[in-house]
Please model this.
Amino acid sequence: MNPQVVNAAEQVDQAFAVIFGISVLMLVGIVGCMLWFAWRYQRKRHPKAADIHGNTLLEILWFVLPTIIVLGMFYFGWTSYQALRSVPADAMTVQVTGRMWSWAFEYPNGRRAAELVVPVGRAVKLDMTSTDVIHSFYVPAFRIKTDTVPGMQTYAWFRPEEEGEYDILCAEYCGLKHANMLSVVRVVDHDTFEQWYRGETDMAGSHGPDPVAVLENQGCTGCHSLDGSEMVGPTLKDIWMRETAVVLPDGRTNTVNADEPYLRRAILEPGTEVVQGYDDIMPPYEGMVSDEELRVMLHWMKGAAAPAPPPGRQIAENEGCLSCHSTDGTIIAGPSFQNLAGSRILVLDNGAEKEIVADDAYLRESIVQPEVLLRKDYDPMMPAYDYLAPNDLDALVEYIRTLGEAP
Amino acid sequence: MTQQVASFLEPPTEAGWLRRVRGWIFSTDHKRIGLLYFYCIAAMFAVGVVLGLLIRLELIAPGETIMGAQTYNAVFTLHGVVMIFMVVIPSIPAAFGNIFLPIQIGAEDVAFPRLNLFSWWLYMAGAALAVVSLFTGSGPPDTGWTFYVPFSSVTTTNVDLAVVAVFILGFSSILTGLNFIITIHRLRADGMTWGRLPLFVWSLYATAWIQLLATPVLGITALLILAERMLGMGLFDPARGGDPILYQHLFWIYSHPAVYIMILPAMGVISDILPVFCRKHIFGYTAIAVSSIGIALAGSLVWAHHMFTSGMSDTAVLVFSLLTFIVAIPSAVKVFNWVATMYKGSISLEPPLWYAMAFIVLFSIGGLTGLVLGSAGTDIHVHDTYFVVAHFHYVIFGGTGFGMFAALHYWLPKVYGRMYNKFWAVVACFILFAGFHLLYFPMFLLGMDGMPRRYYDYLPQYTDMHELSTVGSWILAVGLVIMTANLISGMRLGRRVGNNPWGGASLEWTIPSPPPTHNFLEEPVVEHGPYDYAGIEPEEPSMRVPHQAAPTRGGQA
Model:
């Protein structure tokens, strides 16, 4: 049978029909005989049992007959399996990636989606893999199921014959939210597909990237709720600048405010700072999200209602201040900005130790000429920021003051 | 028949509480060890049933019903581990095999009684560790009983201890198998030729070889999981050149033959029970005995039919699909011979026969639906769905479980010397049978509709069948309670029975009930086959005849 003429799914259904048909006949035969004998040969009707030990001819018969039957079943099973494995040459290829606990689909032109959108009548080949554990891509309507295995490419194909939505399920147990690793195959007409494929529409029909759609497409919402409810990962509701305890890879804990650099790190390299109380199971998205998608996500997280960050904050982020100076009291490479302004500090002035008050003048000087007064107990490693525009410098000092002033 | 002999159940006279306990847990008497196994297995079965009922209750409606996803994942893992490793695998061989194998071949004990006791202790150690794994570490294991990598190597739950428990339980199984093989080869009584072995012994013989040869692979696999988790070996990690599919091969090389470890002894029980209640020689003795060996051989070569969707090569799918169909043939031969045994028999519908007939129906459905799973194209659709769950429970619960129930109703009078209430035994059988179908048959339909297994939550289109199935689980539970209560009251308070209540022709029916400590009062000489009923009549009054009307036989004091 040519799989391009008879759909593979139909061949599978024929194999089902053959096997079920024969099985029902055999079951009725076995149970029917058993019940009939149990009734007919009860002791009251048949007080003396016949002395029969066996019958060689019968033994041969019911060895040979089942052999023929099962070999026939094997044939139907095997040919339908071959149909499932023989991809037509004109098939469109979509790369499927399974990950805890969502599906990602990538089209030949680079378009990525969380739902499998395909044109009706067109054969689709799915090249599959997984980023973490084994999942299994299952579409009952098309009778296809193939494991997605990390480090390995597997495949399946189908040809949708009617428009509609068909469930995609994960069939290989993959942990906590295995049952929610769902998606749909959206079979649409040719023109609708082409429009979608070119990126002109998403399936809701609107234009431009919708941040919630991006979060869903990337699988974020599989673990992070948008409404504050507790899921596998922390909720994304009001995440902006949320005070968060994180665990570093060496087991130390740290408290951060969820600012843009942190959120960016948390998406691209989640393993480096894991939110306390959650397992380190999120896959790194480095290389998995486009810059635009990342921008849209972060923009959404900042949220319309989130308080506008002070302008100095932006400067502190852009200039990399925050990679050495925390805003929450923890010591990274330099002293924290928290409660720095106005505090009494020990500095080295040409090797001589003295105590000063970190007033605006000191803060300004320490940014522009950090080598003049070195903070005691810190390595002299900070570059001079003498190129900052005066109002940027003011904004930065102002920002530091907002992080707490010593009495 | 009238000799006064101390039965193996009786404690030494004037023994204190401690000595009585020690007289059991350190006894090398195969019957006591068998009963110890039986009590533990029954207790673990109760645990497994409760877990199963909880699973069904959670699934009565979509979404969270009584437990969260993490709890659910732990519960189905435990249900699998407890039922498979602690109940079904040891069930018939370790309990009834230990008690009746030596008696049926005319031996005083197994070949290595102390090794036998050690096996039981290993079983206890494994079971204890498995229980400990629930309450230590960071949460009970949530991997499913299959422990598939890479998930099992990355999950933070307490997989390590559970895997050690499986490793230890495996050794218990290996040593029991070894003991049985040597016992059957070396300790047969005079006149007990291979052709006169009861078919239960043949089935244990085939089982023992699988236990001996396949279980070490489970041990190796368990150690490899530990190596992966504790030493980070990367054997199954593709990022470091490992292969997750390799794990699946190793796991199923044991775990598929294990299915035959589970079902073969039950087939042996049925082969022994049917002829007794038909008063007729088993039909095709040689065919049944040879098919047990055939199943053991062919069943060891079909493991990768669990992996048709795994991404292994199409050639492997071809080979394993074909071999899987081959293993169906000896199973079919057995079923045909059982039914043929009933032809022109003189059948008395006693409780063991009802359970045996339930076995034949349930096992046939389980076996026939297995053909759908062996066939490559259809397996792709139903693999890892509720179809598999249904198939497996029809074979293992409907097969081994009902085989165990049949064995209980058949041999309990021999072990305790007392008879249960037969009416309630048959009532329980009917309730169990009805509840069973209501519980598991909807799962076939769910699977055909594409409901994957191990789902804590499900899409709304699956709700109706899940509801039916949960209601079925309650009916089944009622049946289990009735059966258990009836058996317990029977073994404690039942009417005393003589040596041969059912009129069996194998050796266990020639000795007192309960058997004396050394089984035989004098060394037996076997002069006829186990199914030659000429001159043997059941002492037990038939269910259809009022008790008073039956001739009273000398039960012993």
